[in-house]
Design brief:
4-stranded antiparallel beta sheet, about 15% strand, about 325 residues, 12 helices, alpha+beta
Amino acid sequence: MNAETALVPHDPRPVDIYRMSTDAASVCRDIVIASATTIQGRSFVSVEGWQAIAIAHGCAAGARDVERVEGGVRAIGEVRRMSDGQLIAQAEGFVGEDETTWYGGTDKRGKKHDKRNDYAIRAMAQTRAISRACRSAFAHVVVMMKAGLSTTPAEEVPHEGFDRDTGEIIEGTVSNGPAPRTKLDGPHTSKTALKNAVQAIDGRLRKAESVSEVNAILKEERATIEQAARDWPELVNGAPNIDGAEGLRGLAARRRTELTPPEASDLFKSLVESLNECDDETAMKALVNVRGDSIGDLDGEESRKFEALYDERFAIIKSGKVPLVPAE
């Protein structure tokens, strides 16, 4: 179970790899600590942390070949370099039928569990595979962070924890005291509060009735979005290995597309795209100078819409608060 293989790329020199890992440890330290799971006083790196480390190395982690096998469900995790698709590491993730948390039954503490849905079991097998593959490639980066983190993937650790000497599952009761938390620096001081705030923004974006409303929400929630981009990037950028986890960037882009009238002309769409690429007043004025004739060719309805969008974009730029999530 959890067999793993790390494949070292041939082109970089060892010293270059070491420097890259040192840089990654510095860049990812905050998010790895913030997303870590604490069990019986020990902190374990979660899949969000492992993925952040992989991305910092220019890699993407994913899972494949999820299948039912004797004794449970397994999946194969992979870490690939984004530039050329080179396989860097692979490992197996497994959810066993002997795990009462997933397959139901009475655990060693006498607590009864219901069997989880099959999709949840398959999803956990993939999550474990991703974390285990990342660990086989980047465990040394966690050590470099000097944050007291265990390199055992959090998803593999039972709630009871492991015995420090034997590695066996501890059969004692879990402490009822609160686990220590890492205080975040920003308007939201905990991971839970930050996630709840982002989910609230998500809900508002889904209910927005116009592109202008989407832009206004992003402007209003700028502080929360910036903190999420720093402390928990997946909330903003999405998780490419999880279906439906598009993040605020993807959601904002999708809502803008959905709210753009289907009857809009190609010329109008082209001008709006150019407008959304402007990030200062000079670019705004250049757009009018270069594409003034095209703007004049818009019909009355589109001309009024473009003028409103232009004024809105100009006001945002002039205030010095260009939206974090670019319009698409």
